[in-house]
Amino acid sequence: MIWVTGNIDGKKYKEPFSKGILSRSLNIADIGAERAYALAGDIESKLIEDNVGEISSHDLADVVLIYLKMVDPKIAEKYENLRSLRKSEKPLIILIGGASGVGTSSIAFELANRLRLKNIISTDMIREVMRKIVPKELSPVIHKSSFDAHESIRTPSNGMDFVIEGFFDHVEVVNVGIEAIIERSVKEGISTIIEGVHVVPGFIRQDLIDDNNIIIFTLTVDDEESHKQRFYSRCRPPWVKRSPERYMEKFEIIRKTQNFLVEQAKINNACIINNVDINETIDIMVCEILEKFGGENNVKQKSQRDNDN
């Protein structure tokens, strides 16, 4: 039996080598479960051939990297960059925003699987908690949906679109909760994904972004018909209580909030992604994260921000 040793907070541990655990680690480079398990088996055979009875987790990672460089240098590079990202002393905070129906929840789930992150927080849940704390009489806007928040405005301002003003006020209230989650994640050292319509570039305090490993993505669905179909798809399961007709009635408002989100993303130099294909979106996001925090120098896939520049 091969034993893998490690050290957590000064305490040593020892556990049996597992092809399953190693294959999950390899699959972080998105090589597919079957190939990852096959490569893990090859690495196990090599360790047995070399009469390795005990190896540290750090040395095992080096063995994996050397083997991957022989098998496929591209996979090795991605694995090395993802490994350096996970070794960061600061937690990774990923913010994913976008108008209703563009797929922030689905993308957050898939990205968490790819990066092996456990914490996903929806801004809708933050809003629900705040609704229990803040009474409707004190903040009527928080008790509205993002696309009908303008209905709570009693005296609209002169310089801003009525719909956008309502959305702006709605986001501003929920942003208090978003910043609290970020601060807690940073304090506890917990990598977290926060997703939802309330993630708007320019609203998060700049000092939080500058001092920590925080990256913001704004998802869009540029084609209007495709955007409409998303609502029918997500309302199809029998347990979903919301009707797609409700969204269709507010569709023009939802598109208007998307335009606002895109403008904010451009102003604040956030990454904008037209979420057409989920795999392509995840690949772009991973490349952006690695470029900023993982040491990757050559990013082949381009975001809309790169194309605009």
Largest sheet: 5 strands, parallel
What low-confidence regions span 5 or more consecutive residues with pLDDT below 50? Answer: 296-309
Task: Work out the helix count.
Answer: 13
Oligomer: single chain
- Please provide the ordered H/E string of secondary-structure elements: EEHHEHHEHEHHEHEHHHEHH
Strand order of the largest sheet: 5-6-4-7-8
Percentage of β-strand residues: 5-15%
SSE class: alpha/beta
Give a count of the beta strands, DSSP E runs of length 2 or more.
Answer: 8
Global morphology: elongated
Radius of gyration, Cα only, in angstroms?
22 Å
Average pLDDT over all residues: 85
For the termini, the CA-CA separation is 54 Å
The share of residues in helices is: 40-55%
Helix and strand topology:
Elements: E1 3-8, E2 11-16, H1 19-26, H2 33-49, E3 54-56, H3 57-71, H4 73-86, E4 92-98, H5 104-115, E5 119-122, H6 123-133, H7 162-188, E6 192-196, H8 206-210, E7 213-220, H9 224-234, H10 244-249, H11 251-267, E8 271-274, H12 278-294, H13 304-308
Helix pairs in contact: 1-2, 3-4, 5-12
